[in-house]
Design a protein that fits this description.
The chain has helices at residues 5-14, 85-100, 138-152, 169-175, 203-211, 213-222, 228-234, 246-258, 262-274, 280-294, 298-308; strands spanning 41-43, 53-58, 61-66, 69-74, 107-112, 158-162, 166-167, 179-183, 187-189, 226-227, 239-241. By secondary structure, it is α/β, with parallel strands linked by helices. It has 2 domains: 41-123 and 138-259, 2-enoyl-CoA Hydratase, Chain A, domain 1; 261-318, Lyase 2-enoyl-coa Hydratase, Chain  A, domain 2 (Orthogonal Bundle). The two termini are 32 Å apart. 36% of the residues are buried.
Length: 318
Amino acid sequence: MERSPFLAWCASAGARKIACYVAATMDKTAAKIKYASRRPIPVREKSRAATDEETMQFKHVTLDFEGPVAVLKLDHQEVMNAVSMDMLEGLAEALDEIEDRKDDVRCLVITGAGRAFCTGANLQGRNNQKPGRSNAGAALETAFHPFLRRLRRLHCPIVTAVNGPAAGAGMSFALMGDMILCARSSYFLQAFRRIGLVPDCGSTWLLPRLIGKARSVELSLMGERLPAEKALEWGLVNRVYDDGVLMEEAMKLAGELANGPTIALSLIRKLYWDSPENTFEEQLNLEFESQRLAGATQDFKEGVTAFLEKRPAKFRGK
């Protein structure tokens, strides 16, 4: 049987010489920032294959590698994983490690240790600040914003597993996921008004684009809890699971993404991050450029071949 023109085109396109792929940055600001020299303490987990599973400890942060999936865990349970400068330093070092292994890490899961995801900024010691003499926003540009920008530019998909309260900055951390999974008992909270501050960490950019202005303003002005089930109903998150199976489901999803065409998935992330700021014509042009890059990969060739051979594709992220 003679092959159709479309399938012949697909096969020839996939066989082209692979073009050099340079991941386009998702933000024009600030290159990677390291807060201090890295001093991770690697701890090997007991496993059948030590090379597949590894745990590293940073300041209030645990980083696990399980095959092609990295699991970044906010880990300061005494304060329900509230964010301190030490934790932000640990997060920066953990991202350094992930980016150093970008050829091997094909999906990132972010979650919290214990009974909370993240309850916002750590306010311990803040009650002695004098009005007019403190700069409550100073840490944003020096520490919080670089972390958020790096998540936006990350080379692979992000799954956030919201295992408990996600308040203030913690809510923004959760919403940085490409796929947001929640435990049924978890909730979101724009807590800033409760201490006389305004929303930050990108929440006033993220929320209106996800759930609209009216609901975003209500969450911020009223400072009321948004349960996981209601967040799902509003379209703020993707899936809600019983608490006991959240991480199992998150790892299952992360594995599916990690075994996918990760160059294409990275380009998809960029398309949707850039979309709100682009005109229709600009977005068409970005889709064209992204498709050109995706079409030059080995994964595209494998995908077409697998389709023609009626078998599952074996993507390699190349």
